Amino acid sequence: MAHDRTNAAPGALLEIRDLKVDLMTVRGIVYALDGVNLTVGAGEIHGVVGESGCGKSMTAKSILRLHDPRRCRTTGEILFEGRDLNRLSRREMEKVRGKRISMIFQDPMVSLNPLICVGEQIAETIRQHEGCSKGVSRQRTLQLLSQVGIMPPEKRYGQYPFELSGGLQQRVMIAIAIACNPALLIADEPTTALDVTIQAQVLELLKRLSGEMAMSILLITHNFGIVAEVCDRVSVMYAGRVVETADARTIFRNPCHPYTRGLIDSIPRPGARGEALHTIPGAPPQLYDRSDACPYMARCPHAAGVCDARPEAVEVEPGHIVSCHIAACHCVKGGMLHG
């Protein structure tokens, strides 16, 4: 069934509006996402940063509708290429998933089938979405293996996942993800299971592919170093909400939200040997209650009475949006919050 296209922001490939996801658990309802607003532009690499449990992966899985609908309640809009993904039928969503939007996960060994050679796993994806012959899918797979730097492709095609290093396995996952030329690639902590040298190679590969294919990337990470290296824009998440969004340069130059400032201050600095590392006191809140107060209030060094009310998103400078009563005032006046 066709749906009317909804007006999205100009130049936006993906726009998430007031997304809320409630999960039914044995301990009660978990309010995993509490009004997420996020926009990814065409051809943009957009980073999503935050501590574990803040809603980064939940947001990614919500875009592809990977939650069990029997245990999940979702409201809000996820506009992709002008259509609300939450309103698509299951069959319509299957045509989007893997073809127009694809995803790579943290651990390729969990995602790859150990009993099927890697070349056939890539070729199967192509046949499923393109409906081409085995010969055509094999030729396309060899091209993809070369494109992601897996050489020689003819030999690697017939190898099994256990015969490849972690870095090569992740490159196979990237080849599967880009097999159908998606408009959006969601990369959920794609370098977590890799050593530092291989991490840099994989990130450089993603950056190159984004430029070559005019492909947008939603890059989920807890590492601000990765943001600085590859991202054009970044959204900082906390307790199921986006608390700050700006281009990557602005986030480092003028972080307005106290949580963003705390994360950046926690990055070890060159030449600071022997100094105590900065930490954010406390822990993220349990999400079993949907509070009207600022969720960061208990950990914030600047908390005041006004924080009992939920802060609205304020554009403190063009393209720089922050959800914090106190930080918004400081940043609008040209100041900068310090912990």
Give a written overview of the molecule.
The protein is of the alpha/beta class. It has twelve helices and twelve strands. It has helices spanning 56-63, 90-96, 108-111, 118-130, 134-147, 153-157, 166-178, 196-213, 224-230, 248-253, 258-265, 325-332; strands spanning 12-25, 28-41, 45-49, 72-80, 83-84, 101-104, 184-188, 216-221, 233-238, 241-247, 314-317, 320-322. Strand 9 (233-238) and strand 10 (241-247) form a beta hairpin.
- Termini separation comes to 52 Å
Helix content: 25-40%
From N to C, what is the helix and strand string?
Answer: EEEHEEHEHHHHHEHEHEEHHEEH
Mean pLDDT, to the nearest integer, reads 91
Structural class: alpha/beta
Number of strands: 12
Strand count, sense and barrel status of the largest sheet are: 8 strands, mixed
- Overall 3D shape: globular
Strand order of the largest sheet: 6-7-8-3-9-10-12-11
Low-confidence stretches: 1-5
Radius of gyration: 21 Å
Number of helices: 12
Strand content is 15-25%
Describe the structure using short key phrases.
339 residues; alpha/beta; disordered N terminus; eight-stranded mixed β-sheet; 12 helices; single chain
